[in-house]
Design a protein that fits this description.
With 112 residues, the protein is of the alpha+beta class. It has three helices and three strands. It has a three-stranded antiparallel sheet with strand order 1-3-2, covered by helices on one side. The relative contact order is 0.29.
Length: 112
């Protein structure tokens, strides 16, 4: 059995968030939470919130135990906000503010 939680439009670049997500992918939920708590990045705080939501869905809706759950997660690229900034000699630079869709699925690795 598995449940999931999604955070769409997270204001962090997907390339930066994937580095933190690679630390917890495939691990037990309790171990993943400890890794995210000790990692001091914006991505770890966002991923931990989504992980907590996915675990709450599994425990409350399906009656699974938190100790038996494993993390299956990935991050996709969201919309890119295009901004401009004034550069030297009166020219304009383009700044892309990238967003992410954080998808966290927890599974007990049992076949249905």
């Amino acid at each position: 059995m598995e449940t999931y939680a999604i955070h769409k439009g997270a204001m962090i670049a997907p390339r930066k968030a994937r580095m933190t997500l690679d630390l917890v992918r495939g691990k037990k939920v309790i171990e993943a939470k400890m890794i995210l708590l000790t990692t001091n990045t914006k991505a770890s705080r966002l991923i931990k919130k989504v992980l907590d939501s996915a675990v709450a869905n599994a425990v409350n809706n399906l009656g699974l135990k938190e100790e038996d759950l494993y993390v299956v997660a990935y991050i996709n690229e969201g919309v890119t906000l295009k901004r401009s900034k004034i550069a030297s000699r009166g020219s304009v630079d383009k700044r892309d503010k990238r967003t992410s869709h954080i998808f966290v699925k927890v599974s007990d690795k049992k076949e249905d």
